[in-house]
Amino acid sequence: MLSINIIRNICTYLIEPKTEFLNWIPTDKIDFHVLIHNKKAIQYIYENYDKFTNLIDWDILCETEDLFAIKILEQHPENIDWEILSHNSYAIDLIERNLDKVCWESLSANTNLRAIKLLEDHIDQIDPSNITSNPAAIELISSNSYLLDWLWLSSNNSDGAIKLLEEHMHNINWQHLNENPNPNAIKILRNNPDRIDWDILCANYSEEAMDLLEENIDKINWPNLSFNPYAIKLLEHHKDKICWENISANSSAIKLLEQNQDKIDWSSLSYNSGIFELDSSRYNKELNQLVNNIFL
User: Fold this and answer.
1) CA-to-CA distance for 71 and 91, rounded, in angstroms?
2) Which pTM was predicted?
3) Does 240 map to a domain?
4) Which pairing describes strands 276-278 and 19-21: parallel, antiparallel, or unpaired?
5) Which string of DSSP letters, residue by residue, matches 113-157?
6) pLDDT at residue 51, rounded to an integer
7) How far apart are CA 262 and CA 291, in angstroms?
8) Shortest CA distance to 25 belongs to which of 261, 190, 192?
9) Is 23 exposed, middle or buried (0-12, 13-18, 19+ CB in 10 A)?
10) Closest Cα partner for 112 from 87, 145, 143, 138?
């Protein structure tokens, strides 16, 4: 007979974790009209669907890469926007079952490898702009150079895309490159400082971008930086520069926000993906019940 520890480990895959708000957040201050746009709130919405029936933004749900979003959509297929859903890498099962509804232009931006296989089988349907910006499609682009759209390659954060740009510097779109979090994209910017757009760089989600900004404090756009989850170290060292409305939506700023609740913009916090945690007591209770039912 299996040991209780092995059975317990197996059972962890059978229990669906439940979410709850962080215990310091007063739910009466949450703006539920904003919460429905919070992509990390989807499980909470799924678990409390009756409360949100008339509030759900189906377009947001279609673009949210979350298994609970897909569950809701499977239960309400009449509300699916296939142009939006075709972009969603978590929706690949739905997409494969409904090829007649797929928007191939949107699918060209889908990073799921099964979507790339579909595109390889329908290469005449590919949208060059979206496929060029797709980091999962660099091999497909390299093998079919006529699909390459140089305008959008600079937004592709794959190593292969950056290598192509390094070989064709005259084709770089500098605005898109400033948004690109690939470390080698930041290296290109370091070597071309006159091409840096400091406002855009403040919204770049990479440690390398933060290092560059730390070396150029006077260039920082603090409202933009306050949104950036990679910028917490910088923001904590310059608290007088923080835009509290923007940082309230920053998922990496939860500890800082807990310590400064009087400064929180509660509407912005409702959009913050960090306001949920696992309901551990409920999870452990359900897990123990399942283990006992099997083992005893």
Assistant:
1) 10
2) 0.86
3) no
4) antiparallel
5) HHHHHHHHHTGGG--HHHHHT-GGGHHHHHH-GGG--HHHHTT--
6) 87
7) 44
8) 261
9) exposed
10) 87
Segments in the chain below pLDDT 70: 1-2, 4-17, 279-292, 294-296
**256 within 8 A of 235, measured Cβ to Cβ:** yes
In which residue are the tokens 């499609």 written?
Answer: 137
Query: What's the pLDDT score for residue 53?
Result: 87
Tokens of 15: 């229990």
So what's the pLDDT on residue 191? Answer: 97
Length of the chain: 296
Rounded CA-CA distance 104/123 in Å is: 10
pLDDT of 135: 98
Tokens of 188: 């290109």
Asked whether residue 72 is domain-assigned, the answer is yes
* Long-range contact pairs involving 188-194 (C-beta distance under 8 Å, separation at least 24): 188/162
Asked if 180 and 154 touch (Cβ cutoff 8 Å), the reply is yes
Asked, for residue 251, whether it belongs to a domain, the answer is no
Give the number of domains in the chain: 1
pLDDT tens figures, 111-161: 999 999 999 999 999 999 999 999 999 999 999 999 999 999 999 999 999
Which residue bears the tokens 């404090």?
217
Biggest CA-to-CA distance, the chain: 70
234: tokens are 């910088």
Closest CA to 251 of 235, 232, 273: 273
Q: Is residue 178 part of a domain?
A: no
* Residue listed under structure tokens 């949210």: 64
- Which residue range is the domain that position 124 belongs to? 57-148
In this predicted model, what pLDDT tens digit does every residue of 144-156 receive, in sequence order? 999 999 999 999 9
8 Å CB contact between 125 and 104: yes
What is the rounded distance in angstroms from the CA atom of residue 134 to the CA atom of residue 289?
45
